[in-house]
Amino acid sequence: GCGAAEWSRALLAAGARPVGIDNSEKRLEWARKANEEAGVEFPLVHGTAEKTPFESGSFDVVMCDWGAMTFADPFLTVPEAARILRPGGLLAWSGGTPWAWATYDKTTDEEAEALRADYFGMYRWDDPEGAVEFMLPYGEWIRLFAANGLVVEDLIEVRPPEGAPSTYRSEAQTTWARRWPMEQIWKVRKA
């Protein structure tokens, strides 16, 4: 979801007309407060990415930064994003990679230099603390997009440059991400 709507405010400043959606009313309260402090206003909607309250063809862009595309079922979120996009609309989202999933070591809570899980068949991971995450192999993502009338324009596999500031949890993660992609950014367009 939009969380505290940081990206929505940034897009508003760039001339967009954002609409934020989040499944947490508490996060929407934070977003409203942050909007008040910034002196801006745009719609903030309580709902889920799997079944939004929006009409078909409502948006030019659907954006998700480490949000619902990672914690909600992609077999529900991708068709819903395609439904609410106008023809030619853009789905842009970022999240973790299958590489990170396949090498994640539960004992260290970090990515390892060896495979720890099967690549094929990855789908849902239930965190012991109650969180849920979803991931698909690259081919499944592409087939899911195509089945919903979406065409991949780009897949950016983020590689942090040497010496750059990092938001990774540890230096070990930053070093790992310089060798293998830990984050991915998809640019997908509705045909």
Structure in words:
It contains seven helices and ten strands. A four-stranded mixed beta sheet has the order 3-4-10-9. A two-stranded parallel ribbon has the order 1-2. Strand 1, helix 2 and strand 2 form a beta-alpha-beta unit. The longest helix is centred in the N-terminal third of the chain and has 14 residues. The chain is globular. The model has no long low-confidence stretch (mean pLDDT 95).
Main attributes of the structure:
single chain; 191 residues; alpha/beta; Rossmann fold; four-stranded mixed sheet; two-stranded parallel ribbon; 7 helices; 10 strands; 31% helix; globular
Mean of all residue-level pLDDT scores? 95
Radius of gyration: 17 Å
Instruction: Give the count of structural domains.
Output: 1
Order of helices and strands: HEHEEHHEHEEEEHEHE
Q: What is the total tally of β strands?
A: 10
Helix content: 25-40%
CATH class: Alpha Beta
Outline the fold blueprint.
Blueprint: H1 6-13, E1 20-22, H2 25-38, E2 44-46, E3 59-65, H3 68-71, H4 74-84, E4 85-96, H5 98-103, E5 104-105, E6 110-111, E7 124-126, E8 132-134, H6 138-147, E9 150-158, H7 171-177, E10 183-190
Parallel strand pairs: 1-2, 3-4
Antiparallel strand pairs: 4-10, 5-6, 7-8, 9-10
Condensed summary:
By secondary structure, the chain is of the alpha/beta class.
